[in-house]
Design brief:
The complex is a heterodimer. Chain A is mainly α. Chain A has a single domain, classed as MetI-like fold, CATH 1.10.3720.10. Chain A is built from 14 helices and two strands. In chain A, helix 13 runs antiparallel to helix 14. Chain A is globular and about 75 Å long. Chain B is globular and about 75 Å long. At the A-B interface, helix 1, helix 2, helix 4, helix 5 and helix 6 of A face helix 1, helix 2, helix 4, helix 5 and helix 6 of B.
């Protein structure tokens, strides 16, 4: 068997298709993007090497306003962590403690996760439509005509209007992860607390939540990293507008590269997004580890 | 005590039913307006069931709106993505988990990096490569990146299944004179079937719903997948909502039907990726 498991040719045959794809489509492009980000390049003519000028421009050029896109992503991340996750956790706790119809509710709450962001975005376009949309029709019907609004077209409300469906879509995902976490808490722990006279609220807060910290950590990582990568829903709803009111790094990257042919400049945005994804994934893990020790 | 418990249960159900409505109402709205005309959608009957079930919206979406073509394109792209992802990830996992060679730990670690790399890293460089080889506007231009970005997760899922296959099976086959390819094909592949469905579900959702690669790499209408197709449908029917609603339903129903029959399996597959993270 040893010689069979050592078969060099077979190893190559098995690993190469995946390895080549992975190298050509994922690894090499990271370095290509890093290199492009140092160029002043329109994609047609030869690029000119300009060092870190693109990065400097990102933070100083007011027509791009990269800080604003980061800020929008941070706002989305904050809403995800402090609104979306608590709702998910609440639902997970209610369901996991056992209630009739547990499976049914769990399955229903998960449905929005499965549907494409394009479909959900298009649907919310209709909901937000200023003339015929569901939201304004509802406001008129309940006598709140004052609140009727061009939700996606107004700089003041556009960002909030795109955040709501994003939160709505992924509540079910976090709920399912947390639900599985709560289910895996040993019964003896909660039983013991019950015997000691703890209320259901106290059990959740003092026994279950500390036990599922690793799952919560994972949800926070997903929520934060997801916020910095978010694209589909915003592209469909506003494409970053009006006047960059809902612009996030991804929509800026796409419009710089494929809208304005600023290949180098757009690549600098891509590199920052990649870096942020790694930093958050590693950083949040470390913060929680220190706490556990 | 009893009364208190009853109140508590009632509160719980109120919350759960409220959230059921929040989760489902937008979808209910989508289904109903896909069968209405503008008069109903715009005021006469906004949230009720359609007065006349207007199936012609679906006909419009499928024919004039090209949703039939986009649907087929999505099936082709997603289908091939799933097949290649399963095949390549299974082969790679076998080499990483069962074969003995120097550097396999490192290679595995590099694959796992793929879980963190966002597709933003690839969008422009791969665009330039594809343009150079005149491969934009083709099924491959989507299938190749989709497979590449699905590999990391697929290898992780496959590995978690392969660990549970006893090595003695392969060793017994080896003593019987089977070579490495035969072992892979006749022992590993059949036993890995449960992993296939997990990988397939995961890859299906990723490829079926993907937007960023699809809008950049496909401009030719003949190769548009659903996510891009819906965008152009909604551009073509700005004043008529019914066919757009029908298009949205057409893009969504395969997922929902699959979910109806195997909700547990789908939930488990989507969580599998997260568990190790």
């Amino acid at each position: 068997m040893g010689s069979v498991r050592n078969n060099k040719k077979a190893i190559a045959v098995f690993i190469l298709p995946a390895a080549i794809l992975f190298i050509v489509i994922i690894i090499v492009p990271i370095f290509m993007s890093a290199y492009y980000s140092l160029l002043n390049w329109d994609g047609m003519t030869t690029g000119k090497f300009i060092g870190f000028q693109n990065y400097v421009n990102l933070f100083t050029d007011p027509s791009v306003n990269f800080m604003k896109t980061l800020w929008d992503a941070i706002i989305l991340a904050v809403f995800s962590v402090f609104i979306q996750l608590p709702i998910s956790l609440g639902l997970a706790l209610v369901l996991a403690k056992g209630i009739k119809g547990e499976r049914f509710f769990l399955s229903v709450f998960f449905i929005p996760v499965l549907i494409s962001s394009v479909v959900i975005g298009q649907l919310w376009l209709k909901i937000y439509n200023p003339n015929y949309g569901l939201l304004n029709a509802f406001l008129k019907a309940v006598g709140l005509s004052k609140w009727v609004h061009t939700w996606l077209g107004d700089e003041k409300t556009a960002l909030m209007a795109v955040i709501v469906p994003i939160l709505w879509q992924f509540i079910g995902y976090h709920m399912l992860l947390l639900y599985a976490g709560v289910k895996s808490v040993p019964k003896e722990l909660t039983e013991a607390a019950k015997i000691d006279g703890a209320t259901s609220w106290q059990i959740s807060w003092n026994v279950i939540i500390p036990q599922i910290k690793p799952v919560i950590r994972m949800c926070i990582i997903f929520a934060v990293v997801g916020s910095f990568k978010t694209f589909d829903m915003i592209y469909v709803l506003t494409n970053g507008g009006p006047a960059h009111a809902s612009e996030v790094p991804s929509t800026l990257m796409i419009s710089l590269i494929f809208g304005r042919n600023q290949y180098g400049f757009g690549s600098a945005v891509a590199i920052i997004i990649i870096a942020l994804c790694f930093i958050f994934a590693i950083g949040i893990r470390r913060v929680f580890k220190v706490e556990e020790d | 005590m009893m009364a208190k418990r009853r109140i508590k249960t009632t509160v719980k159900y109120v919350i759960l039913i409220f959230w059921t409505l929040v989760s489902l109402f937008p979808l209910y709205y989508m289904f109903t307006f896909s069968l209405k005309d503008n008069r109903e959608i715009f005021g006469a009957n906004i949230i009720g069931l359609p007065a006349h079930w207007l199936w012609s919206n679906y006909k419009d979406a499928l024919t004039t709106g090209n949703m039939g073509l986009y649907f087929m394109n999505s099936i082709i792209v997603t289908g091939f993505t799933i097949i290649f992802t399963i095949l390549f990830s299974l082969m790679a996992t076998f080499a990483l988990e069962r074969m003995v060679w120097k550097g396999r730990k490192q290679v595995n670690a590099i694959f796992m990096l793929g879980l963190t790399v966002p597709i933003h890293a690839a969008i422009l460089p791969v665009f330039i490569i594809l343009r150079k080889f005149h491969m934009l506007n083709s099924y491959q231009s989507l299938i190749i990146p989709y497979v590449a970005f699905a590999l990391a997760m697929a290898i992780m899922i496959s590995a978690s299944f392969m660990i549970n296959i006893p090595k003695e099976l392969e060793e017994a086959a080896c003593i019987d004179g089977a070579g490495i390819y035969k072992i892979f094909w006749t022992i590993i592949c059949p036993l890995m079937k449960p992993a296939f469905s997990s990988v397939a579900i995961f890859t299906f959702l990723q490829a079926w719903n993907e937007l960023m690669f699809a809008i950049i790499y496909i401009s030719d209408g003949r190769y548009r997948t659903l996510s891009v197709g819906i965008q152009s449908l909604s551009g073509a029917y700005t004043t008529e909502w019914g066919p757009i609603g029908a298009g949205l339903v057409i893009a969504t129903f395969p997922t929902l039907i699959a979910y109806l029959f195997m909700s547990k399996k789908i939930q488990a597959s989507l969580m599998a990726g997260a568990i190790k993270g």
